[in-house]
User: Fold this.
Amino acid sequence: MIKKIEHIGIAVKNINDSNALFKKLFGKEHYKIETVASEGVNTSFFLLGETKIELVQATSENSSIAKFIEKKGEGIHHIAYEVDDIEQEMARLKNEGFELINAQPKDGADNKRICFLHPKTTNGVLVELTQEKK
Ligand code: ZN
Assistant:
């Protein structure tokens, strides 16, 4: 079962400029910056109540974020939903006909195990499942 929106991911060109922009918007600072080398991204997180905003910047030309910005420009990139048991949710959603991008959960930013669902099976929205690492 999907529990709640854990975070919304926003693709940005320059994470320092965007940290300053979103600080102005939210009236508060980001609480962490984290590089996820396996994804070729730098991330920063703002906490708004129970939900987070994740800014994502490509660190290489080959990163999916670089390709996304090239095609669509900066903007909302994905919505991440929190689950208790990611393997179980992946099996359930696969069984329901959704296409999983990752066959196995992988390590994401902010102490999470994650899996993406292909946007072509979710009305064009890139979906991320997240489970807090124990
Ligand atoms: Zn994310």
